Amino acid sequence: MNAFKYLLLLLITLLLISCNTSKETKSLESDIIIDDMGYKFTFGKTPQKIVVLAPNLTEIVYELGLQNKLIGNTTYCNYPEEAKNIEKIGDMLSIDHEKLLTLQPDLIFITVEGNTKETFDKLKSLGLSLFISNPRDYNGIKKTFRDFGKIFRVSKLVENKISGWDKTVDSIKIVSRKHPKYVTMFLVSFQPVMAAGKNTYINQYLTFCNLENITGDIETNYPFLSREEVLKRNPEIILHTQHSYDTRNNVLDLYKEWKDLKAVNNNKVFYLNPDIYFRPGPRFVVALKDLSSLITSQ
């Protein structure tokens, strides 16, 4: 009888060890994320003090209600309004490393397009923990959002929000199919003429709204266009984010030869808010709704 009890106890113990090992393995696997540069990021406990070095990342922090963990950001982080009151550790290109070290963050979020490699190398040399984000399209934005969800244990909230985004995107795609497929140039800069290429999240504003990107045949993310090339491609709509050129006459003051462009002739040169359109984060859908409303009203 005693031998039977011992054997039963041994079996129960082995089962418990097996279950705990399985849970531990699952936990360890869930604590590993591959960031957007391919670096393996391992985290144990939830970070309590974070710094973000880009406005879109600050917006993600607030969207997920994590602002109580935010101890530092950049001078460009101006949304929501409360983000302006967070300790500023520089702009996106120039960081005050001494101030950053004084803050003693558990984790720093940086981007590829906004921040420099020099910044990354310097922060790594200081022994700081970094997570790199590089959303190049809508799916990339969702990936970054999900990464935040895993790191801060709020994945359920993230999935609920993404579900809402997807519904909005799908509805805009349906509505957009009802209007003509205008040839569109989205200018990042007027001087020199630089447009958003097909391999950017900006391009998806256009494709989701059933617009044809004038640079859709160019592989460069943000190609420079000659004045003559713009005339040749002849956009029907020009979108830009520079207040200085918010009217037809402003554009013609800059490039008189563009008077024959369809977009200029038909007064379809539109200013867009850069703080909304140039931030690959939670307000991607806000920008998309704004553009959809603009196009469908034409």
**Name of the CATH architecture of the largest domain:** 3-Layer(aba) Sandwich
From the 3D structure, determine the CATH topology of the largest domain.
Answer: Rossmann fold
What string, H for helix and E for strand, traces the elements in order?
Answer: HEEEHEHEHEHHEEHEHEHHEHH
Form type: globular
Identify low-pLDDT runs: 3-29
Structural class: alpha/beta
Task: Provide the number of structural domains.
Answer: 2
Q: Roughly what is the average pLDDT, rounded to an integer?
A: 88
How widely separated are the two ends?
Answer: 88 Å
Number of helical segments?
Answer: 12
How much strand? 5-15%
Q: Specify the CATH class of the largest domain.
A: Alpha Beta
Helicity range of the residues?
Answer: 40-55%
Extended strand count: 11
Largest sheet: 5 strands, mixed
Radius of gyration: 24 Å
Structure commentary:
The chain has 298 residues and is of the alpha/beta class. The protein folds into two domains: 32-153, 3-Layer(aba) Sandwich (Rossmann fold); 165-296, Nitrogenase molybdenum iron protein domain (Rossmann fold), CATH 3.40.50.1980. The chain has twelve helices and eleven strands. The model is unreliable at 3-29 (pLDDT under 50). Helix 5 (138-151) packs antiparallel against helix 6 (155-176) and helix 6 runs parallel beside helix 12. It has helices at 2-30, 55-63, 97-103, 117-125, 138-151, 155-176, 201-208, 227-233, 248-254, 262-265, 274-277, 284-296, and strands at residues 32-34, 40-42, 50-52, 70-72, 107-111, 130-133, 183-189, 194-195, 212-213, 237-240, 269-271.
